[in-house]
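User: Some background: our group keeps a shared notebook of sequences we're curious about, and every so often someone picks one and asks for a predicted structure to add to the entry. Today it's my turn. The entry only has the sequence so far, pasted here. Could you supply the structure so I can complete it?
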Amino acid sequence: MNKQTTVGIIIGILLASAVSAGVFYWNKNAKQEQCNEANRNIVLDLKNQAKNLQDEVKGLQNGKNAPIVDKDLAGGIEKIEESPCDLELPVVVYERPGLLTPAEKTNLEKKMVNPFFAYYNEEEINYVTMSVEVPINPGEAYSVLAIYKNGGSMGFLFGERGGDYDYWEPECMNDCPFSDAFRAQYPQIAGDE
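Assistant: Of course. Here's the predicted structure to add to the notebook entry:
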């Protein structure tokens, strides 16, 4: 082999490596963008479905936590299982988020969102999304809709915007079954305070 052939082979290998790296990088970015778009569509779809159920939740009497169950949302839920990406569930969507102060959002997460999911995760009820409608006027209740993976849903009113409110509590016919871990994390709810 002469020097020109060797240089040609080296240049060919470097060129092939550069092209391969470019194709790999382009495919990786295209796949990531596809995942991001699929996740955005899933969240928007679930948000639209949640919005359609908000009218039913608004019909609840002031402060009563009457659940709405067994809505047929399976079409939107199936899309999650078809997603080419891992979507971190549950997704919490705040409607009118601009009306929430950071302190109000933190308080909602501490007293309602986190205990709600902690309790139902122990019960092995898999939620995929929660929509929290922030009321326009202070003093009005938050309208909450949570959607199960199987397509069922639960809606309730919670607290008052701008006011002080207690922790969310599950509705049970008798005493609620709280695990030791839940009791340790939320003694305010389990009645161990």
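Suggested note for the entry: Residues 60-82 have pLDDT under 50 and may be disordered. The CA atoms of residues 3 and 61 lie 88 Å apart.
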